[in-house]
Amino acid sequence: MKDQVESKIKKEEKPVSLMVSKSEKLVVIKTDQDVVKATEFLVQVKDKLDALETERQGYTKPLNESLRKLNARFKELTEPLRNAEKAVKEAIIDYRALKEKLRLEEEEKLRKQHKNPNLAITEVLPDIVESKSGETRTTKRWTFEVVDLKKVPRDYLTVDKTKVDEAISNGVRNIAGLNIFQKENISVFR
């Protein structure tokens, strides 16, 4: 199939190249007749694009469907394992947090008992735990959660283009901080 696809692509390279070179003459529009010629060219381009897309989908659609089914089947197998993995990891983290809390409480109790603020219990859970077949390693990393969106600096925020486009499609014409305007577009019909 790879050879068949490559052959089809090779066959289309010359006509596509000719169309592209033809477009170079059509980008200079000076008369109404030039607009008519450009329109005819755009219709031919649309026909070629549609034909190539149909050809591409003929190859990719069955592959994508097979891939979708395969991914769904493996997800059925892996999702319960991922959930189990997550639950066990959370249990270990919760246990470690409890042990650390108890250690700190015991440390504070000993400090008061011996009236020594520098007393410390240095015995902590190991970050690496070994079993017969492997090991776990506990690490710490910095992360975040939003507590007050209004206070987050602008540098860390992103405009949601999908939501803005949807709002504009629904008739919204004024959004603070945005310039909403009309832009001409050319559509090709046959």
Describe the structure.
- With 190 residues, the chain is mainly alpha-helical.
- The protein has one domain.
- The chain has three helices and two strands, in the order ααββα.
- Strands 1-2 form a two-stranded antiparallel ribbon.
- The protein is elongated, with a radius of gyration of 32 Å.
- The protein starts with a helix and ends in a 21-residue tail after the last helix.
- The mean pLDDT is 92.
**Overall residue-averaged pLDDT value:** 92
Spatially, the strands of the biggest sheet line up as 1-2
The total beta strand count reads 2
Quickly give the structural class.
mainly alpha
Rg value: 32 Å
Task: Name the overall outline.
Answer: elongated
Helix content class: 55-70%
Instruction: Give the topology string: H per helix, E per strand.
Output: HHEEH
Number of discrete domains = 1
Annotation field: number of helices: 3
Characterize the largest beta sheet: strand count, sense, and whether it forms a barrel. Answer: 2 strands, antiparallel
Q: Please mark out the parts with pLDDT under 50 across 5 or more consecutive residues, or reply none.
A: none
Strand content: under 5%
Distance between the termini: 32 Å
